Amino acid sequence: GVVIVPQSTDGRFLLLRVNRYATGGASLEFPRGGGHADEDVVASGSRELLRETGLIGKDWSILGYQHPDNAIVMTKVAVLRAVIPENADKSLQLNTQEAIAEGMLVTYDDMTELVRNGHITDGFTLGALTIYRAHIG
């Protein structure tokens, strides 16, 4: 699997509001999805970003990997960073079949506040944010 940290050219991050039946409400998340056998993780990330948002990322980098639940599931998820346009929120083509309701660009400080206030609770997103933070110092 992959989780994508989409960062616009002006430094903001794309978060998606996804309706999750398991928690009975909306969740703020980075885009993510599964890979295919023998598919490169960047190809998986590119496909998932396009499928969920209609955006084409560039300057992809692999930030690291996470095991979201290593006690139950043997899943290794690549954490990728992709550059998206500064005005990406204006050109989103959200995949409503994936229960994606909204996309928003937020600053790093805004995202930190969303975590602090309990508005970002998704484990994939929290893990990806931690790995991203480890790379920027």
Give a description of the structure.
With 137 residues, the chain is an alpha+beta fold. It is 26% helix and 34% strand. It has 3 helices and 7 strands, in the order E-E-E-E-H-E-E-E-H-H. The chain has helices at 41-53, 108-116, 123-136; strands spanning 2-8, 13-20, 25-29, 32-33, 58-66, 77-84, 100-106. The strands form 2 sheets. It has a 4-stranded mixed β-sheet, with helices on both faces. A hairpin with a 4-residue loop joins strand 2 and strand 3. The longest helix is centred in the last third of the chain and has 14 residues, at 123-136.
Unreliable residue stretches: none
Mean pLDDT: 93
How many individual β-strands? 7
Helix content: 25-40%
Radius of gyration: 14 Å
What would you call the structural class?
alpha+beta
Instruction: Name the overall outline.
Output: globular
Q: What portion of residues belong to β-strands?
A: 25-35%
Spatial order of the strands forming the largest sheet? 4-1-6-5
Please write the string of helix (H) and strand (E) elements: EEEEHEEEHH
Distance between the termini: 25 Å
Instruction: Please give the count of helices.
Output: 3
Biggest sheet, in brief?
Answer: 4 strands, mixed
